[in-house]
Design a protein that fits this description.
122 residues, 2 strands, mainly alpha, single chain, 65% helix
């Protein structure tokens, strides 16, 4: 739970940031899958060298020329979401440091590994 002394704007930003992180965790790999599936080169995608990952069947019957536009669109989406994730990560770290050193509440301590949430408020 968020601290009780957080204002509505900070609550909105905190929840929005977390939801956006969850969205990006799913959307970035999916856009990458779309990207390699639409690749005009036809090179198979290996999953960490263990096995071949299947391409999406939608692109199987397309000509190489037709795949180029799709590939550019998915590549742009993939790159934009990756940069958004980096920016969001910096925002997340800055917010944690803000809570630790400016507001002096227990938010950063509550986020730390192995911290018992119940004992933090004491």
């Amino acid at each position: 739970a968020l601290p009780a002394n957080m204002g509505p704007l900070m609550r909105f930003l905190a929840r929005g940031t977390h939801y956006l992180f969850y969205f990006l965790i799913i959307a970035i790999p999916l856009s990458g899958w779309l990207l390699v599936s639409a690749s005009p080169t036809g090179i198979p995608t290996m999953y960490f060298g263990l096995f071949q990952w299947p391409n999406l069947p939608f692109f199987n019957g397309m000509l190489r020329v037709d795949k180029v536009n799709y590939r550019e669109t998915f590549a742009t989406a993939h790159i934009v979401m990756a940069y958004l994730t980096i920016a969001l990560l910096f925002l997340h770290v800055a917010a944690a440091l803000f809570h630790q050193f400016i507001r002096r509440d227990n938010v950063l301590r509550r986020m730390w590994f192995g911290t018992d949430v119940e004992s933090v408020g004491r």
